[in-house]
Write a structure and sequence with these properties.
The complex is a heterodimer of chains A (339) and B (322). Chain A has 339 residues and is mainly alpha-helical. Chain A contains 13 helices and 7 strands. Chain A has 2 domains: 45-106, no CATH class; 119-334, MetI-like fold, CATH 1.10.3720. In chain A, strands 1-2-5 form a 3-stranded antiparallel beta sheet, with no helix packed on it. In chain A, strands 3-4 form a two-stranded antiparallel sheet. Chain A has a two-stranded antiparallel ribbon with strand order 6-7. Chain A is elongated, with a radius of gyration of 25 Å. Chain B is mainly alpha-helical and 322 residues long. Chain B is 80% helix and 1% strand. Chain B has 14 helices and 2 strands. Chain B has helices at residues 2-30, 36-41, 48-57, 64-76, 90-125, 130-143, 147-161, 174-177, 180-215, 218-225, 230-268, 273-283, 286-314, 316-321, and strands at 82-83, 88-89. Classes of the chains: A mainly alpha (339), B mainly alpha (322). At the A-B interface, helix 4, helix 5, helix 10, helix 12 and helix 13 of A face helix 1, helix 6, helix 7, helix 11 and helix 12 of B.
């Protein structure tokens, strides 16, 4: 019972994170590239519940912020008139969950140097980061399943070559290899092509571990009695592989997908942070953080670190999910043994 | 005699691996669409003849296999090729930076192991106790924080409280004031802590698992039945039995630190191999890129070799297998 509740909680957190990112246009108050130059480096907007007369409102409201004269990037609230937050309001670019009238601004996580809303960029950037990670994972698993399946099923020289090359990939310090490969490709490309390039590079790096695991599963699967029986009835090798052996690798594949995605999210963030990934103006969690290479940002504009929290949150949900899958798998395996 | 055979086999394996890595690294570097000289060609103050003569001088007009052999030869001569951006042999660039990276890496490794060993052993000794539960919660959080996130959060904290420096390895004028060592230690504190926190959770889990297995094994129970105290049981009976996976882990943990230290160095401005590498990528200074990748591969292979030999020395089961 406790286990069910735990899995339910994990699934809810997982769904919440992904819905927020998938429907970024709905949850984000602004477009990711919308600039509010007069509000550059604004702190997160405060939500108020009590107005100047001491009256309590259920609907939160914000005060418009005005620049402080003579000081750069300093703002104060103008308490003369409050603007309530409107839920599900229709704007020119569709329905938004949260919005305020255009006289005030709603910067939940503050703004960056161009006055772009960090909360909105976080949601839209998550799309890019997660998409890149998922495509890369898919690629890794495809290569991994193909290599591992072939190595395990056919054995011999093919097996030896594939396994030695996977050892080679695992032996290299992967971040250096990743950067070396990325460095040997064109440095400046447009965002969509970068996305493809990045996913391909990251994906091509990650195949070794899934391949080795899948080889193990395939090796044990082809010795199972029902596979031998099918072979005895005259089933072809490809039929066996497709019908009996590969379905057994599904558990490993899911587990690997859940572990690889957060790793690749971090890899994308790292590359974009270093300026080798997705470039402006398209937001990604990595390039939003690259402002932190300047000490000014670190010391004064701490709210720009919001993508860090998102990175940890996404990794944590995947990590806990992987853990739950692992435990569920262990229980199933201990309950019913094949041998 | 058998140890020699074992060593010979491991060594041969390591050499073959390194040879394959060198071919791979060289191949990847040659895929690059632009070279340092191409960037130079864009500079109107440098004539085309100069660039062409540089091409010949650096041997870039030679066919691929020749260039590969030259590169290998220069690596064996201790030069690791020639840096076009810095205009000096790559080795001259590498040594001081490698020293700094080593300083950071070994400090972090010491911190990580001195956290993981006692906590892991205690977790196995009292599983589900409050220390064990606390460890598991914190290590889950740390394991799921990417190095980038952890490094930056620490840097933000440092900037906010202003007690420790947020970057670099030395302060200005530290040489004159006579506190040079203390100054480096102050600068080392944050990057080393971050790196240790990145590495420690994985170590902790393995230590705990290995100790748990050893602790519950029949021979420890038998020893317990003979009335041997917990302390002696833990240190003299369980720990040696749990050492095998931990020694293999030692090699792997070095690999983790090496990959991790790169990013932390770049974030915190630690003058190690990380910033050199990233600048070389942007400058298309391919010999530096290749040298750093090779250097780390050599380090990893040596670390694995050492842990193999240690395993052979410590674990009688390994000796029996050979």
């Amino acid at each position: 019972m406790l286990m069910h509740r735990k899995i339910f909680a994990i699934a809810m957190a997982f769904a919440a994170v992904h819905c927020g990112i998938l429907f970024a246009g709905f949850f984000a108050p602004y477009m990711p590239s919308a600039q509010h130059r007069e509000h550059a480096y604004a702190r997160p907007t405060k939500l108020h519940f009590v107005d100047a007369q001491g009256q309590v409102h259920i609907r939160p409201f914000v005060y418009p912020s005005v620049p402080v004269e003579g000081e750069g990037f300093q703002y104060r609230e103008d308490p003369s008139s409050g603007y309530p937050i409107r839920f599900l309001s229709r704007k020119s670019d569709g329905i938004h969950l949260l919005a305020v009238d255009s006289q005030a601004d709603l910067f939940l996580f503050g703004t960056d140097g161009y006055g772009r809303d960090i909360f909105s960029r976080l949601l839209f950037g998550g799309r890019i980061s997660l998409l890149a990670a998922m495509v890369a994972t898919l690629l890794s698993l495809l290569i991994g399943v193909a290599a591992g399946g072939i190595a395990g099923h056919f054995g011999g020289a093919v097996d030896a070559v594939i396994m030695r090359s996977s050892e080679l990939v695992l032996a290299l310090p992967w971040i250096y290899l990743l950067l070396a490969i990325r460095g040997s490709l064109p440095l400046h490309v447009e965002p969509t092509r970068t996305l493809i390039l990045l996913s391909a590079v990251i994906g091509a790096m990650g195949w070794a571990r899934p391949a080795r695991l899948i080889r193990g599963v395939v090796l044990s699967a082809r010795e199972r009695p029902f596979v031998s029986a099918a072979r005895g009835f005259g089933a072809s090798e490809w039929y066996l592989l497709r019908r009996h052996v590969l379905p057994q690798t599904l558990g490993v594949i899911t587990a690997q997908a859940v572990t690889l995605i957060p790793q690749f999210v971090a890899a994308e963030a790292t590359l974009s942070f270093l300026g080798l990934g997705i470039g402006e103006p398209v937001p990604s969690w990595g390039n939003m953080l690259s402002a932190f290479q300047q000490f000014q940002t670190v010391s004064s504009y701490w709210w720009m670190a919001a993508p860090l929290v998102a990175l940890v949150a996404v990794s944590l949900t995947y990590f806990v999910l992987a853990d739950a899958l692992h435990q569920a798998g262990a229980r199933i395996n201990s309950g019913q043994s094949y041998a | 005699m058998r140890i020699l055979d074992y060593l010979k086999r491991r060594f041969l394996h390591a050499v073959l691996l390194l040879a394959a890595i060198s071919v791979l690294t060289f191949g990847i570097a040659q895929l690059a669409p632009g070279t340092f000289l191409d960037e130079m060609r864009l500079n109107p103050q440098i004539s085309a003849q100069t660039v062409d003569s540089l091409r010949v001088q650096y041997g870039l007009d030679q066919p691929l296999p020749v260039r590969y052999l030259r590169w290998i030869a220069s690596a064996f001569a201790g030069e690791f090729g020639y840096s076009l951006a810095y205009n000096m042999p790559v080795s001259a660039l590498l040594w001081t930076r490698m020293r700094n990276t080593f300083l950071l890496g070994t400090t972090a490794m010491l911190i990580a192991w001195s956290l993981a060993l006692p906590l892991g052993i205690w977790g196995a000794f009292r599983p589900k106790g409050w220390i064990d539960r606390g460890n598991s919660a914190i290590s889950t959080l740390l394991l799921s924080s990417p190095e980038l996130a952890l490094g930056m959060l620490f840097m933000l904290a440092a900037a906010r409280f202003g007690v420790l420096p947020t970057g670099g390895m030395t302060s200005l004028y530290s040489e004159q004031t006579g506190f040079a060592v203390a100054d480096v230690i102050r600068h080392l504190a944050i990057p080393a802590t971050v790196l240790a926190l990145v590495a420690a959770p994985m170590l902790l889990r393995h230590v705990r698992a290995a100790m748990l297995e050893a602790w519950n094994s029949p021979f420890v129970k038998a020893a317990k039945g003979h009335g041997i105290g917990n302390r002696r049981l833990l240190l003299h009976h369980a720990l040696p039995a749990a050492a095998n996976p931990l020694i293999s882990l030692f090699g792997l943990s070095l690999a983790g630190l090496v990959s991790g230290s790169f990013l932390i160095e770049v974030i915190m401005g630690w003058p190690g191999l990380g910033p050199l590498f990233i600048n070389a990528i942007f400058a298309r200074d391919l010999h530096v890129v290749m040298a750093v990748v090779m250097l780390f591969s050599v380090l990893l292979v040596i670390a694995n070799l050492i842990s193999d030999v240690l395993l052979y020395a410590v674990d009688p089961r390994v000796r029996a297998e050979c």
